[in-house]
Amino acid sequence: MAFVPVIIAFILYFTGIPIAFALIAAALSYFSFINVGMPPDLILQRFVSSSASFPMLAIPFFIMAGSIMNYSGISASLMKMADVLTGHLTGGLAQVNIVLSLLMGGISGSANADAAMQCKILVPEMEKRGYSRAFSTAVTAASSSVAPVIPPGIDLIIYALIAQVSVGKMFLAGYAPAIIMGLTLMVTVSIIAKKRNYAPSRAKRASLKEIFTQARKSIWALFLPFGIILGLRAGMFTPTEGGAIAVLFCTLVGIFVYKELELKHLPLILKDTIYSTSTVMFIIIAASIFGYYMTWEMIPQALSAALLSATNSKILMLLMVNLLLLILGMFLEGGAALIILAPLLVPVVTGLGVDPVHFGAIAIVNIMIGGITPPFGSMMFTSCSITGVEISDFVKEVYPFILALIVALLVVTYVPGIVMFLPNLF
């Protein structure tokens, strides 16, 4: 009977009910019909208390910063910088797509936001240059998986809160995995582009003068993620205050530097922020209620015991955890999967000597791969709905990128020194 709510949650989710409602319904069914000794007042208090966290205030601030960036000219400036750096490579616009995700991922903080924006900006342009729409959509979805790994991605903050590790350390641990993911995607694009004769977006490599000129124009946009990291590590502000500073910085740059942000954009920015924040927070609350049920039934302890009894090898354990996360990532939305699974798995891997910061990077990369994988990958649905590509055509084009990201995942998993270099350095 203890596992009935889990079955209910999956059944509801597979019938099309949003994950937040599925989790709440499953948890309430447990406390209403199975564990009837729990007073209803305590459950209602849990709804409120699960969102009463000061660090969670960082979420709406960073979401708003990403929205302002889209209207202020910062995104366009980063795209020009990406084109100068990689436009001359084979498959030029596809390479620009990936580099743009690396440049702006830390600011948007959301894989779906990155996928939506790039689908609107780059996919039509890629079609004009001779790329197929399905390939363009697959590249966009795959590159968007890098966005939440770059600081200050929302998933990094959420994991830090769940695992009770430093947000600053999680931010620093995100750079290396994101760069590895970007490089493997770029190699894959290059191989496919050579076979299909996809032309570069620039006739020749940009000169040092061109790169320097564009870097000078884009310096304000490029400074944002690094400024936040340095401010956090220097103790100048908390993650929440850093989010507020990011909003102020993007606003000032949009008004006085790029001069594209106008008063008419304010309602659109507020709408984007409120909608995205409400979605994220509601999932967090639902997952907290569901986690309360699992804690009550000691399911995390049971799972930990089962995994530890299967093997005491760190290598095999990480392989098993990776397989579990990859499979569940195909069915669960990224944020929800992280919130549900992190409390279960962190005690298991730390018991074998894995640093929780390192495991956070592994878990987030895993979940991002699941976001572009059928049957329920959220970035897959976001990208295909915007570009009008059939899911079957998308799947044919995206599988090489999934394999490339799995290679990156194995490097992140089994070479911890790469991930932990910056956190240990600071």
TrEMBL record:
<protein>
    <submittedName>
        <fullName>TRAP dicarboxylate transporter, DctM subunit</fullName>
    </submittedName>
</protein>
<dbReference type="Pfam" id="PF06808">
    <property type="entry name" value="DctM"/>
</dbReference>
<feature type="transmembrane region" description="Helical">
    <location>
        <begin position="273"/>
        <end position="295"/>
    </location>
</feature>
<feature type="transmembrane region" description="Helical">
    <location>
        <begin position="6"/>
        <end position="33"/>
    </location>
</feature>
<dbReference type="GO" id="GO:0022857">
    <property type="term" value="F:transmembrane transporter activity"/>
</dbReference>
<feature type="transmembrane region" description="Helical">
    <location>
        <begin position="357"/>
        <end position="378"/>
    </location>
</feature>
<keyword id="KW-0812">Transmembrane</keyword>
<feature type="transmembrane region" description="Helical">
    <location>
        <begin position="94"/>
        <end position="113"/>
    </location>
</feature>
<feature type="transmembrane region" description="Helical">
    <location>
        <begin position="243"/>
        <end position="261"/>
    </location>
</feature>
<dbReference type="GO" id="GO:0005886">
    <property type="term" value="C:plasma membrane"/>
</dbReference>
<feature type="transmembrane region" description="Helical">
    <location>
        <begin position="398"/>
        <end position="422"/>
    </location>
</feature>
<keyword id="KW-0997">Cell inner membrane</keyword>
<feature type="domain" description="TRAP C4-dicarboxylate transport system permease DctM subunit">
    <location>
        <begin position="7"/>
        <end position="418"/>
    </location>
</feature>
<keyword id="KW-1133">Transmembrane helix</keyword>
<feature type="transmembrane region" description="Helical">
    <location>
        <begin position="174"/>
        <end position="193"/>
    </location>
</feature>
<dbReference type="InterPro" id="IPR004681">
    <property type="entry name" value="TRAP_DctM"/>
</dbReference>
<feature type="transmembrane region" description="Helical">
    <location>
        <begin position="219"/>
        <end position="237"/>
    </location>
</feature>
<keyword id="KW-0472">Membrane</keyword>
<dbReference type="InterPro" id="IPR010656">
    <property type="entry name" value="DctM"/>
</dbReference>
<keyword id="KW-1003">Cell membrane</keyword>
<feature type="transmembrane region" description="Helical">
    <location>
        <begin position="315"/>
        <end position="345"/>
    </location>
</feature>
<feature type="transmembrane region" description="Helical">
    <location>
        <begin position="54"/>
        <end position="74"/>
    </location>
</feature>
